[in-house]
């Protein structure tokens, strides 16, 4: 093994690595002499400081552009061992931080540093778990799933290239790969459900583990874990796969359960989605339906909601290229990726023009009395239950896919997009209800009701609906209604001002962040702000530099998206959902909304004309 460049004398100015990752310790015994020589050279240059050295091949510190002799690797001293106010005479830790590297070397380093069950709970084990979680959450950014599968198979099968590997080391290496695969499947199973590369990888890995089971019986526990995670089954015992009985038939005996594909389709059809059904050119019903809904079921729900005979209605989809498709009763409304086949419109059969509206805004005005009759706490409970159903199904990795794959349609972001869509709907719903209220006194009552609902949502730890309602009341079309706001009682004006302060964007939304931090889990955050934080990290830092992955950036992104997991946990049994009224739930599930901003402004000026 040839000599490699030693790390530079790294000083306190590298304190900018606040979110450092991949802590490496000196392990390579064969390079011990070279490490000692480098340490002596470092001491002669900067006495009395003694810098520890170690060898991390193919890593590079991103900001050291043009530094000779450091083109292939990078490392930095961990800030966890350095006091912020220390001088160059501080005690230097022998722990380092790797901030960039090739995907293959990052994976190799991660496996070497991985701790098995007996080491869990120790400080080293916790660090290893965090690094593993960082990698599994962000790997789609720098390598494909197919590449990761190939790399893991290579690490499982390939022996060490430096000297001989004893039996214990071989088992440990295989167990580490299987542990990583187990964590990967547990974390990302929903995203990998239909990936053909993963199916083949799991079957192939399962075959390799069965091959090794005779020589290494201790892998039996890992075999059972693979079976449980990916629903694999086997019809054999260890004796069946002694060296004399191994054959190609082994591959065919390890297979996925026959009903797996069928169960996937069932899961997709049972998943709830939000469906927009336009009943005029500028207003729609937001309906909660299952993913496998057909046109007949949707028409039935709309007919009941609008009190129109089912036989008079047809469902038309306006495709994204402008075409019009008349959906037959048994036609699926959503594709396999849970996206509608087009913009859905309902109209009467006897109309000459398919897209002519069958209703007008006068029918919407009847909703005011119903809205005023609802209990504000019950409405907030129904809104929170609705949002929690969506939020609880969001995976942290959805934020990564949304940020890095925003220009391509991804089936991995359905739940996140659903929650963002719901936030917009609630905001438009608030505007619609206020602007369709014809009388001044009832409009004042309606705004008072929305202010109370917003306060209840905040008390129920639902910041998504809280923000949506406040933003709906502060939009130009509503806030310009000066006569309405002047009639508002003083205590409601004060309450609204306090609530509006939480949404203040100054100082990077400090008011919201402070308020949200004090709330106990489970809780529902404001998703656009999470996406803003990730986008700032993404746009402000390079993902690659000279073909090396900026793992420091990915660590920061992983830290941000883990907030989803923390908000979903309920360690104290606090619970966020409550029993809601059937009447209120039916009202909230099918909101009638105007989404045309020009129409909303026209309604606003009709209520209070410009002076």
Automatic annotation (TrEMBL):
Domain Ras-GEF: 375-610
Domain N-terminal Ras-GEF positions: 94-231
GO BP terms, alphabetized: Ras protein signal transduction
Family annotation (Pfam families): RasGEF, RasGEF_N
Cellular compartments per GO CC: plasma membrane
Classification of source organism: Eukaryota, Metazoa, Chordata, Craniata, Vertebrata
Protein name: Rap guanine nucleotide exchange factor 5
Region (Disordered): 1-52, 66-86
Molecular function GO terms recorded: guanyl-nucleotide exchange factor activity
Keywords, ordered alphabetically: Guanine-nucleotide releasing factor
Record's keyword annotation contains Mitochondrion: no
Ranges of compositional bias, category Acidic residues: 24-39
Chain segments annotated as transmembrane: none
Family matches, as InterPro entries: Ras-like_GEF, Ras-like_Gua-exchang_fac_N, Ras_G-nucl-exch_fac_CS, Ras_GEF_dom_sf, RASGEF_cat_dom, RASGEF_cat_dom_sf, Ubiquitin-like_domsf
